[in-house]
Amino acid sequence: MHERLIIAGPCAAESEDQVMKSTEAAAARGINVVRMSLWKPRTKPGFDGVGEKGIPWLINVSEMGLTPATEVMFPSHAEATVNAIIKNTSGRIILWLGSRNQNHLIQQDISRVIAGEPRVMLMIKNQPWRDEAHWEGIVDHVLSGGAKEEQLLLCHRGFAPGSNELRNSPDYAMALRLKLKRNLPVILDSSHIGGSVKNVLAVSKQGMQYRENGVGFDGLMVEVHPNPKEALTDSKQQLDWQTLDQLLTELY
Ligand code: PEP
Ligand code: MN
Q: What tens digit of pLDDT does each residue of 157-171 get?
């Protein structure tokens, strides 16, 4: 497979069995990073993620030789996940700041928790509204908390409102401009742009082929669930593993 970062796995970690199935499916495909968010920002009250109950699952994934990836909404989430991986394993973890987490004091405090820990990466998603300076400002807030540039990664998840049937509207050119300006890798979250399986496939292809001055995305984050129909969150947009196989064959 092409040397590009692929993060694949369920929108939300739901059970130990679901996480283990996802990890085995990822490993069988040579995908090294498993998405398995323990916390879920929600538009309306509902399933908020399994929270700290899922921390042993992160350790299991790491012991299986893969890297878990989860959103952290509070500094305490970063502390719990980073400690679990650093103290119990020799592996790595990818955390992300979600699009709705726009309190800069929280951004700085999460950065403080991960500062200088080379086994922890922090992915910075764009905020929901279209504003390049704001997205770049999150990078600055995070750096002011102490995280090193080498620990950071950008992630483009589109901007509200959606258009052309998409859940969110992509601005590939903006994401790639920021990559060049700040010298940070940027990956594409085609799931939260697409909003449906058909659109996720189309956006993944369109986005990964997009070039701005010869520069493209460094990877892809896609939601993949062992049984998408039963998913507790974002069931309409999660691929099954066979569909991901077809997509990756077309892409790489
Ligand atoms: C997510 O990736 O789980 C998510 C909630 O996405 P976003 O913050 O981009 O809406
Ligand atoms: Mn989701």
A: 999 999 999 999 999
